[in-house]
Amino acid sequence: MRKNLFIFSFMLLAVFLLTACGEGDNDNKDNAEAEDKHWEEIQEKGEIVAGTSGTLIGASYYDENDELTGYTVEIMKEIGKRLDLEVKFEIMGADDLATAINSGRIDVGANDATITEKNQEKFGFSDPYKYSYIVAAVRESDNSGIETLDDLEGKKAGGAATTIYSQIAEHFGAEVVTYGNAPNEAYLSDISTGRTDLVLNDYYLTKFGVAAFPDFDLHLHPTLKFNPTEQAIMMPKDASKLQEEINGALNDMREDGTLSELAKEFYEEDASEEPDVEVEIVEGLDF
């Protein structure tokens, strides 16, 4: 009787395991189909829609001929060529990218999105195409009264509401003044006139933004250089096939020197490689 009971129990366990494996296989299949769906839709229409601001000097901006260009924009155009896709750009503010991706209005965000652990919980990211670190634009005459990050307490920081840079400013007690999808001039002019005190952003964007307006009372803070950052193409969390295709194109661009050439064209430095700069590591800033 015990032997028969054991055999029966073993058979039940085997059936359960087979069923569970079958369900797991089905789940994996369903997940794979969901992951492939986004890429398949892009292939069907022969077009990838990328959200970008058009207001970031060096990364995404309009040149003197009113043509959209910049390091990130040209990378996205090159990805399109290598994947045999037309690239359509939708102009929007940084705060609108997440909603646009989630709603399906755009396929990817091409706007110097910074990779963080919390961002990766909600969105997929390509491999990094740019490596930088965080700096501050402040008034040249007095550094806006800021010597350390603790001095941000009570200051006004210009920025988009949802970026890591604005969240860092708030973390140190600054009031964030938001602008929507405003051009660099609006942010930086307000520092010069005293309406705000600083803008936190990555080194390359800040360097070229400041250089574009030499008449402003403005410069990069001489000592605030902290936390390395990585920028990438942003996409839906489940778009693994799209992620794979974009990473393949980026890898080819890195190997054949295209990323390096574009970085030097727009930043005069190779932003596609990690900068050889000593920066402070400030813990607890992964927003």
Write structural notes for this entry.
The protein has 287 residues and is α+β, with helices and mostly antiparallel strands. The protein contains nine helices and 13 strands. The strands form three sheets. Strands 1, 5, 6, 7, 8, 11, 12 and 13 form an eight-stranded mixed β-sheet that branches. A three-stranded antiparallel β-sheet has the order 2-3-4. Strand 3 and strand 4 form a beta hairpin. Mean pLDDT is 89; it is low at 1-34.
How are the elements arranged and paired?
Elements: H1 2-45, E1 47-52, E2 55-56, E3 60-62, E4 68-69, H2 71-82, E5 86-91, H3 97-103, E6 108-114, H4 117-122, E7 123-125, E8 130-138, E9 156-158, H5 164-171, E10 175-177, H6 184-193, E11 199-202, H7 203-211, E12 219-220, E13 226-236, H8 240-255, H9 258-267
Parallel strand pairs: 1-5, 1-6, 9-10
Antiparallel strand pairs: 2-3, 3-4, 6-13, 7-13, 8-11, 8-12, 8-13
Helix pairs in contact: 2-8
